[in-house]
Write a structure and sequence with these properties.
By secondary structure, this protein is α/β, with parallel strands linked by helices. The chain has six helices and five strands; from the N terminus they run H-E-E-H-E-E-H-H-H-H-E. Among the domains are: about 55 residues; about 60 residues. A hairpin with a 6-residue loop joins strand 1 and strand 2. The chain starts with 5 loop residues before the first helix and ends with a strand. About 5% of the residues have low confidence.
């Protein structure tokens, strides 16, 4: 029987054990790398900006003062913009039996700060002039009210009203400047004569 000396088998076994250990180590690293979870990319999408609503030509409510022959006189009443004298009379409780409505135009538009006086039959009506003199309210004005303003005339007055009806109410002189025929010189002459409420 032929025996291999123990000293020759030992380095060969050590080398074999080392190779097996190295292969096991490499296999373990490969398994570890393949079993790692995939990298997750976080993408943060900010919310879309909320659009700011464009300005509208909606105006705040107005306050008027109702006096005279109404059920509840000396009342300050808040009404929606573009209300008429008839609305103020209704809000004040209606007229009394002594009211003289021949001196009142119930279809006139109201403006913030107006005083509506319903006279008693036989009474002459004298209300104080509004502060600052006569001011034309461009968003309710008729051709007849705009015509006498400096530089306007009947044709441009009609154009202003047509523009207002097509594009909505004027909020400033900048809006008025969009009307064909209106320019900086005319706007300069209208300062203090127009109200945009």
């Amino acid at each position: 029987m032929y025996d291999t000396p123990l000293t020759e088998a030992s380095p060969r076994n050590t080398l074999l054990a080392f190779v097996i250990l190295l292969v096991a180590l490499i296999a373990g690293v490969v398994v570890l790398l393949n079993s790692r979870p995939q990298t997750v990319e976080l993408v943060i999408n900010p919310p879309l900006p909320t659009p700011t609503p464009a300005p509208t030509s909606t105006f705040a409510p107005i306050m008027v003062y109702v006096t005279g022959a109404v059920a509840n006189p000396q009342q300050t009443i808040t009404l929606p913009y573009r209300s008429r004298v008839a609305d103020a009379i209704t809000a004040a409780g209606g007229t009394t039996a002594e009211a003289d409505l021949t001196l009142v135009n119930p279809t006139s538009f109201l403006h913030d700060g107006d005083q509506i006086h319903i006279p008693v039959k036989g009474q002459s009506v004298e209300l104080p002039t509004p502060n600052g003199g006569i001011v034309v309210h461009i968003n309710t004005a008729t051709v007849e009210e705009l015509d006498p303003l400096p530089g306007i005339g009947p044709t441009l007055a009609a154009d202003i009203i047509a523009y207002r009806e097509a594009n909505g109410m004027f909020t400033s002189f900048d809006d008025l400047d969009n009307v064909p025929g209106v320019g900086p010189a005319l706007i300069e002459g209208l300062q203090g004569l127009l109200a945009f409420d």
